[in-house]
Amino acid sequence: MDAQSDSAEHQRPTGIHLDAAAVAHPAVGGSVAPMGRETVFDCQGLGVRYHGTRALRDVDLQIHSHAVTALIGPSGCGKSTFLRCLNRMNDLIPGAAVDGACLYHGENLYGPDIDAIEVRKRIGMVFQKPNPFPKSIYDNVAFGPRVLGMKDSLDDRVEQALRRAALWDEVKDRLKSGALGLSGGQQQRLCIARALAVEPDVILMDEPCSALDPISTAAIEDLMMTLKNDYTVVIVTHNMQQAARVADITAFFSVDQGETGPRTGVLIEVDATDRIFTKPANERTEAYVTGRFG
Ligand SMILES: Nc1ncnc2c1ncn2[C@@H]1O[C@H](COP(=O)(O)OP(=O)(O)OP(=O)(O)O)[C@@H](O)[C@H]1O
Ligand SMILES: [Mg+2]
Prior knowledge:
This protein has a single domain, classed as P-loop containing nucleotide triphosphate hydrolases (Rossmann fold, 3-Layer(aba) Sandwich). Helices cover 32% and strands 25% of the residues. It contains eleven helices and ten strands. The chain has helices spanning 3-9, 79-85, 116-122, 137-147, 154-164, 168-171, 184-196, 214-227, 240-246, 273-278, 283-289; strands at 39-50, 53-64, 68-72, 96-104, 107-108, 123-126, 202-206, 232-236, 249-257, 263-272. A six-stranded mixed beta sheet has the order 6-7-8-3-9-10, sandwiched between helices. Strands 2-1-4-5 form a four-stranded antiparallel beta sheet, with helices on one face. α4 (137-147) packs across α5, α4 runs parallel beside α7 and α5 (154-164) packs across α7 (184-196). Bound molecules: adenosine-5'-triphosphate (ATP) and magnesium ion. Residues 50, 55, 73, 75-81, 93, 95, 265 line the site of adenosine-5'-triphosphate.
């Protein structure tokens, strides 16, 4: 089965293709509304402090299903911090405190009854540096399902995850070999397969290509565009060409330098990617995308 038919099989009812024309009008520090798309995340006044120092404030941003949303902006503006809010990974960072609301399918992820482990199962994450476990290829992909007790048809589950990550053909004859023997690009696709194996709803990727060569980068970019058929994909990237190539929606973050207070990350603008790069509403966005800042 190829990746396309695999995705068709899992198509959700809301799977309408998004294009720039389907995006309603620009929103400055707010949201764009892709018609016919489900709102997966609705962040309202979201902020983060580390040890009491505010790193990110007042983010109002909606993220929609079946689209790639890219987060761009200068170093230190809070892109990774924001991404970690979406699956409660900041809970694992000492001194991090999240305020405001982050609704996921209408439910506050930071509500009292929410199980953070379940959240991270539904909302998977892939990091900048490929981080496979020092185990076999098979055991890497089977790790999450085993931990979560999803042991039915484990072989099938591993195969499907590897197929969806566009890695199956390259590894099907060496599943019991060590994952650390794979190339960097293959390791990153393995990490994507590991995230997919627990059947998430959302895939978050923090600069997933920054450690990869151009060919591996192209493979991951192709994969992102396939994955959005079945998943909600959010990426952080410093590579503006990459955002322009793969993202339907782009959110630009920057840093406000308080007169006396610390530097704080803020969301400046979110819109259809082509508008962000050709006709941004905010001059700070324009300065950044034209290379005059950051
Ligand atoms: N674990 C932490 N403890 C304390 N401060 C942190 C921590 N992680 C991030 N910060 C601070 O929060 C702010 C935002 O950092 P973050 O890593 O989210 O930025 P970023 O936009 O992802 O940057 P980059 O593009 O360099 O990855 C920065 O000022 C950073 O120093
Ligand atoms: Mg970062």
